[in-house]
């Protein structure tokens, strides 16, 4: 179905593609199968087994480029490859992701205001469809998507000047655009101002996204994309970095008491607003929507679909800090949970709760 749609609707103007495809894609999921049964008995399709060789899909939140700092503008080459890979969505559930460089989110890009970015985008030869990239940091038609529609095995080059500092989302913009985003094709590009960003001890990269699947958390098997759920904006998974509770336990972020932390926060969407919150911390500074100006002493910040922000705070007390989408059902039931484990000496003058157990949120 999806491959046929890509043959029928060719790229022209992005919004036209969306309008044409919405009704067509709405009938592609299991809900549509039951709704289309006009008197005939409908059978629930058998759940496919999980893919045995599915790989971890979540981008490492600490594996990001270092600060640009003070330097003159230059030309920066970026290489991205669009890949369709089987990954682990949750314990016992696998999923066919569409990705940049094989992870969700794709790699964080980092440049300086005034740099010329030479972006090489290649579509893997074994891909099933075309892909592209729209960078919200680009000034130009389609954010670059018009010139980067790449067929399987093809490579194209986009050159643009990074004119505005901030934190920006990039995503695939090949029709049907919501499906490409919902399958994992998004990331962030950070454009630093000429003076660079203030130094911090730790930087992390966290992006929220939704997955519209025919399986729910707690089930087992290989999940399929559900176009009906996407059209209804009803995801079974809302997660950080591509998978259910991906940045928890052994994969939690790490810091020490006294560390100044900066989190680059993105929301790939494609539909929901994120109410981003760190339980037990207050953001000293938040650059809402990636703006140059900061807001102080923020408890929860809204990050719109297709938007980004960055937050800074200093960890004063050891313990485990939980990151959530404070539309809290998404955290508790759909997987939008991450952790920062902070080590160091207790600070009873700041926080003293000797009776607290280990199972608190």
From TrEMBL:
Residues 89-195 form the Plastocyanin-like domain. It catalyses: nitric oxide + Fe(III)-[cytochrome c] + H2O = Fe(II)-[cytochrome c] + nitrite + 2 H(+). SUPFAM superfamilies: Cupredoxins. Residues 1-26 form the signal peptide. Cu cation binds at residues 131, 136, 171-172, 180, 185, 326. InterPro entries: Cu-oxidase-like_N (IPR011707), Cu-oxidase_fam (IPR045087), Cupredoxin (IPR008972), NO2-reductase_Cu (IPR001287). It is an enzyme of class 1 (oxidoreductase). It comes from the Bacteria. The keyword Metal-binding applies. Keywords: Copper, Metal-binding, Oxidoreductase, Repeat, Signal. Its EC number is 1.7.2.1. Its cofactor is Cu(+); Cu(2+). The keyword Signal applies. GO terms for molecular function: copper ion binding; nitrite reductase (NO-forming) activity. Homotrimer. Belongs to the multicopper oxidase family. NCBIfam families: Cu_nitrite_red. This is Copper-containing nitrite reductase. It comes from Caldinitratiruptor microaerophilus.
């Amino acid at each position: 179905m999806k491959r046929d749609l890509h043959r029928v609707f060719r790229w022209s103007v992005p919004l036209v593609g969306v309008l044409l495809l919405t009704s067509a894609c709405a009938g592609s999921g299991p809900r549509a199968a039951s709704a289309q049964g006009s008197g005939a008995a409908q059978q629930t399709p058998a759940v496919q087994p999980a893919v045995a060789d599915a790989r971890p899909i979540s981008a490492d939140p600490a594996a990001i480029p270092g600060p640009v700092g003070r330097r003159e503008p230059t030309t920066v080459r970026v290489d991205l490859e669009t890949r369709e890979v089987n990954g682990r969505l949750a314990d016992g559930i696998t999923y066919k992701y569409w990705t940049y460089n094989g992870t969700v989110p794709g790699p964080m890009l980092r440049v300086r205001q005034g740099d010329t970015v030479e972006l090489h985008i290649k579509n893997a030869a074994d891909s099933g469809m075309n892909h592209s990239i729209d960078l919200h940091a680009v000034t130009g038609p389609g954010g670059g998507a018009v010139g980067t529609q790449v067929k399987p095995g093809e490579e194209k080059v986009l050159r643009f000047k990074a004119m505005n500092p901030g934190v920006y989302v990039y995503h695939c913009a090949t029709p049907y655009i919501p499906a490409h985003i919902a399958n994992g094709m998004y990331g962030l590009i950070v454009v630093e101002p000429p003076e660079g960003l203030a130094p911090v001890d730790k930087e992390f990269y966290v992006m929220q996204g939704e997955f519209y699947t025919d399986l729910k958390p707690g089930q087992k098997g290989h999940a399929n994309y559900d176009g009906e759920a996407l059209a209804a904006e009803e995801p079974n998974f809302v997660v950080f970095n591509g998978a259910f509770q991906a940045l928890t336990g052994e994969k939690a972020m790490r810091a020490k008491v006294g560390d100044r932390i900066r989190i680059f926060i993105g929301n790939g969407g494609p539909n929901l607003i994120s109410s981003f919150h760190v339980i037990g911390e207050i953001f000293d500074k938040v650059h809402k929507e990636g703006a140059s100006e900061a807001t102080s002493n923020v408890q929860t910040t809204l990050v719109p679909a297709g938007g980004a922000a960055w937050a800074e705070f200093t960890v004063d007390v050891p313990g485990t800090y939980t990151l959530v989408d404070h539309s809290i059902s998404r955290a508790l039931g759909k997987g939008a949970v991450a952790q920062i484990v902070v080590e160091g000496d207790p600070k009873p003058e700041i926080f003293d709760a000797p009776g607290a157990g280990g199972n608190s949120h």
